[in-house]
Amino acid sequence: MSAHADGAAHAEHHTHYTTTGLDNRKIAIWAFIGSECMLFASLIATYLIYKGKSLVGPYPHTEYIDAAGKVFKPILDIPVTSASTFVLLASSFAMVLALQAVQLKGVPLPSGAGWWTRAQRSSQLWLAVTAALGTTFLGFQAYEFTAFVNEGLTIKTNLFGSTFFTLTGFHGAHVTVGVLWLMSLLWVDRTRGLAGPGDELLVDITALYWHFVDVVWIAIFTLVYLIQ
Amino acid sequence: MAHESAHVDKHAAHAHPNGATYLKIFVILTLITVVEVWAYYIPALVASPLFNPSLIIMSAVKFAIVVMFYMHLKYDHKIFKMLFSGPLVIAMATIVALLFLFRQLSF
Amino acid sequence: MSMLRLRKAAPALLAAVALLTLNACSGMESAPNSTFNHTTDLNTSIDGLWDLLLLWGTIVFVVVEVALIFTIYRFRKRPGGAPAKQIHGNVALEITWTVIPAVILVLIAVPTVKTIFQTQAPAPAGALTIEVTGHQWWWEFHYPEYGVTTANEVYIPVGRTANFVLRTKDVLHSFWVPQMGGKRDLITNRTNTLWFTPRVDLGTNAWNGFCTEYCGSSHANMKFRLFTVQPDEFASWAAHQARPALPHDTATSTAAPAVPPVTVASASATMPVPAMQAPEASAAGYVFPAANLPEHVIPQTPIPASLKFDDALLAQGDAKRGETSFMMGGCIGCHAISGNPMAMSNVGPNLTHFASRHTLGGGLFRNDDTTLARWIKNARAMKPGALMLVVGIGEYSPDLKGPVTAGLTDAQIADVVAYLRSLK
Amino acid sequence: MASIAHPTTAAHASAENENTGIWSWITTVDHKRIGTLYLWTALFFFLVGGFEATLIRTQLMKPNMGFVSAETYNQLFTMHGTTMVFLAVMPLSAAFFNYLIPLQIGARDVAFPRLNAFSYWVYLLGGIFITLPILFQVAPDGGWFGYAPLTTPRFSTGPNIDFWVLGLQILGISSLAAAFNFITTIVNLRAPGMSLMRMPMFTWMSFVVQFLIILAFPPITVALFFLLMDRFFGTNFYAIAAGADPLLWQHLFWVFGHPEVYILILPAFGLVSEVLPTFSKKPLFGYNVMVYSGIMIGFLGFGVWAHHMFAVGMGAVADSIFSLMTMLIAIPTGVKIFNWIATMWSGEVRFTVPMKFAIALIAMFTIGGISGVMHSSPPADLQQTDTYFVVAHFHYVLFGGSIMGIFAGIYFYYPKMTGRHLNETQGNWHFWLNFIGMNLTFFPMHFSGLMGMSRRIYTYDAGQGFDLFNMMATYGTYLLVVATAIFVWNFVRSHKHGEIAGNDPWGGATLEWSIPSPPPEYNFAQIPEVTSRYPLWDLKDPKMTAGIDHSHADAKVITDTHAVPVHEETQRHTAKELGIPMPLPTAKPLFVAFSMVVMFCGLLFLRIDMFAVALTVMLGGAAAMIAGLYLWLTSPLE
Lengths: 228, 107, 424, 638
Ligand code: HEA
Ligand code: HEA
Ligand code: CUA
Ligand SMILES: [Cu+2]
Fold this sequence. Notes:
Helix content of chain D: 55-70%
Strand content of chain B: under 5%
Helix content of chain B: over 70%
Distance between the termini of chain D: 10 Å
Strand order of the largest sheet of chain D: 1-2
Structural class of chain B: mainly alpha
Structural class of chain D: mainly alpha
Order of helices and strands of chain B: HHHHH
Bound molecules: heme-A, dinuclear copper ion, copper (II) ion
Radius of gyration of chain D: 25 Å
Radius of gyration of chain B: 19 Å
Distance between the termini of chain B: 55 Å
Largest interface: C-D, 110 and 114 residues
Oligomer: heterotetramer
Largest sheet of chain B: none
Number of strands of chain B: 0
Number of strands of chain D: 2
Strand content of chain D: under 5%
Order of helices and strands of chain D: HHHHHHHHHHHHHHEHHEHHH
Shape of chain B: flat
Largest sheet of chain D: 2 strands, parallel
């Protein structure tokens, strides 16, 4: 993130020679994403290692009856999570359109372009949509967490609770950062308008981060929610 | 230099799929997700030994599609391919190794 | 001139190495915990592997160092010396020194893998199972076969495979008797095993055991003794240990020193360590004779001089009174003594046949009256972090953050000592 | 990314030349000054770690010693290991990354100069954070790999481990930020013609290390985060009562831990790979193989971690696999050893102090490597693990390897960094005392280990056969104290009184020797176009490099990049005079680093149930950090 920092101040200096002709910030963000792979690998591995090792419930996929005879039904709520998964996928779609919109700035619209073609040209629209969908996802997660807590699963309850909340929480934190990042971009777009190679790059690296957070969720959704 | 890097970008922009393709990809991703969730609700499938593997394959496909097209790695400089695939391989290998070590997977 | 220095230093270094090697190999005396024995099937196969590693290691070492020293000597810059040849590489050579190490490694790898599977196979049938439980900072040994539970001293018969089933009550520990073979960790929420068969001709002997996984303040003080004994001796020992504690009206024991006093080798302020006391093997049960204990298994841990006890009182110690104090003093809160229905707790070491042990406090001290009295009075002062409560009246207790008020007087402690002495 | 710009670009003056006061150090973003800061700080921590070691050795000099208490001892060895690994050797390497990489690849700075300053300040503050507690006897005491469950709140109630968890977390951020920075720098800021396979070997090894860092630190970050959650928020990751598996920590730690040891050695390998050719007047033997073996070592390093766990009962199959993987690493490492020797073969070997240290690395590291291979055989390791034999192994590789290599680097590059030589005579004393001292200290440990002495024991009983070896080790340490003291004296004094060194005091082959010593703020007045692996030898002694392929200067590149053929730069100007845009000095990175550390400190109050305080401190820190970040992001670099 700070990586993107020095670069940002750099948008104006596009005359810098680089060995590869690529922008430093883009190399840094890819290195960062590579590193993130290992971060989530560790989190996911831990979740799977402790899968089925909890001494007490609630459990993700199976019912649990405690000493007092209280019944805890399987805690994962697949329908809700499927919805939030869809929302995140959609946000990725919006994100690519946002990047495309910035890249097509200045390219004249073909005559008689339909609403869809015209809509595709609005970077502000798609940045806003992406951020909104991201926020919706966070909303789902907030709902899910509170629901679990009400059903008796906290981060302290058992191994499942600790690993589940930490893994998904880590991902949620990444989404939150992404949303803030998108909003600051949107703000820049509104104030001075995003255009030109410098800004394309700004949006591009944001998109890379955002899509990565999305693919991580694709993995989590399958490994945590679906497989048993 | 300016023109060149700019040129690189533009070039990339053209190589990129356009909105329509993005939409197609989005539809595919959604469909796979639907299949996954649908399978989850068919006890017979869940019971079968192929359930987990096939789900993992499906998500892997989604993963790959997003990375190649939405993250346009397919069209981008090879240095990025290395920066991503290298760590990804090590990360995957580490997960698998750990699962074997903790007997969550076995031969 | 620097070459001169190198030439001077090299022999010095070699001399040091030689000296060390000499010392290391000069047998049991100087190396009572050596890992190079062939006392069991386990350490025999390990040592075979070690010899292989040492051989190839030495060869590689010599080759590299000789090549290095020769090169820098032969090609040192000197007036009239040949100018540097501008060689950039040589594929043939590089392949050579890739392949040769690879071959060496294969020669090491094959027997390694063999040994791994051989030593980690399940213990042979008829093995003697001993359940080992690690505690901060002492060892519990349980013989399911004989219903025996003891602490810090474990007996095994020669010729029969001993299969140690390793668990821990708290943090990680590691079970190691260097002279018997490799170590195994005790892992919380897991069970490990380690087995070996003491050679039949090993004779009756005593060995040091250590905890080798860092486990907190007294990691260094978590020791135990392993006794390899003859099958009949073992049978006798086990049968006796399985029995409840003997009635304690027998006279309290103050036996004569069995081994000459050892003077303390230490810089810290300490009182001289008194002589080893012979636990009286009661007619019934075999106990490893104190007289035969090798020097190096006899603890020499100094007792802090600051810890005062009126040893004169020990003579008047009365076992019966001691039993009462044992219960009043809160000892039963942690310690079990079968035969004493009040003492059931298994938080601390089981004391049923305490008097038949040679050491106390996690193998840290000799089990004699003067030490025992001080241990009871203030174990924390004698063993860092020890979890045993301070019971001596007036002693500082970390738990109370002040002096103990409701505890035992020196006289009462003397009684308790007498009581414990009666637990043959 | 203050790399090459048109001289026509409006020139911003950098404050450097006019101002060398303390403030200029606090606000500097110059990779050379940051490198210098790293060097001094890391040397200080080396002394701290060494001092702790000296206390350890004094306590172990004789059986049943009462020099320090058990609790103090446990803090001492924990902090000794932690300090040496995270606060001494890694930052010493970082000092060279910072100082050398841009110079060796012909760049004017790193890709993200302010991020670079940030890394340093986080390191400094993190180091202070984790070191201070020892003065109050509440230092971390769980060992440098802090095995659970001993570190969980149930068995460690004090604040000791809290400092460790947070401290390492902070230091990790520093290393990661730096790694992204250097990866970008090496990929993107190489001078024209400086293809990857022309990079100096030090830059190459550093490049590999940066990847080890970005892949090895996430696992420990996660492992530490779990512990942090357990200690501050009552989660169950390592809570044995909840059925947690202590091996989780061990695996996550060593997935980091083993690559970490190569993070510690590869920069040293890189440094000696610069020193040996220079003083043999020969190019490095088998450059390509040296590169590949470095990559190989780094890659294999991710597949061997469980060799630290042969005693935990992983099962025969796992033991075998990790054993074989471990042995494999001996091969690429061996190639390096032999190629170094071959580099000196048929050369003109000059025994300067740096050369002596470099040769010592070859000699000593080999010993450590061989004992490593002895560990790699699980049954044998069952007799060795957690004994002094392991302590001997890793000190031979760490002290005989990393430290020797780093000293070689310091003596070699001191003239470049300061413009003055270190005193040769004192240097020789330092070397010989160090060489003899380290062998006297660590060689006996092989024996005490195999004779049954476990590690991490604050005392041992008499008559166990350990006495002689420990006595020797302790005296050896005292020699090392003397040696180090001589070095410290030499290092400080030569700054003013050392004899003047020119651009190229040793006859080096790479770009850093083509510019004045110390280099001007802008490094290169004109970026050179590189046409071979040994640009300076091309210039000064072409027949030396006749044997390797060259590319002739490409007119187009030259016009595009305003590069010029490799040349020596003799006179120094200011960036202003040359119209070279330099990054502006700024204190923002320090501010962000500081508020981040404050944020972490907030957590400490949770353990003493001061929720209000904790919350305010944490939120305050976070707010300040974000504000600082915002200012940072929105202010121009140049
Ligand atoms: C600089 C750091 C460094 C380096 C480079 C190494 C290098 C190696 N290490 Fe070491 N190691 C540590 C630092 C390092 N280690 C530390 C700190 C610990 C202890 C952590 C702790 O517990 O606190 C440790 C512990 C450790 C263990 C665990 C021991 C135990 O706890 O039981 C093992 C086990 O396999 C091991 C193996 C190796 C091997 C095989 C290498 C190989 O890379 C060595 C390869 C080099 C050579 C072999 C020499 C040159 C080669 C030749 C001349 C070719 C011919 C040679 C042969 C054919 C043998 N190391
Ligand atoms: C690069 C890493 C590194 C380095 C350089 C060293 C250097 C030294 N180490 Fe150690 N060490 C470790 C890494 C390192 N160590 C690690 C990781 C552990 C494991 C910790 C654990 O188990 O958790 C360990 C453990 C360890 C132990 C085992 C402790 C135990 O298990 O109980 C011992 C015991 O002798 C020891 C000794 C030494 C000594 C004598 C030095 C000497 O070489 C030190 C030389 C330096 C000096 C002597 C400095 C001298 C300067 C001064 C004293 C100040 C003087 C003041 C001025 C001049 C101003 N180290
Ligand atoms: Cu128990 Cu160390
Ligand atoms: Cu290792």
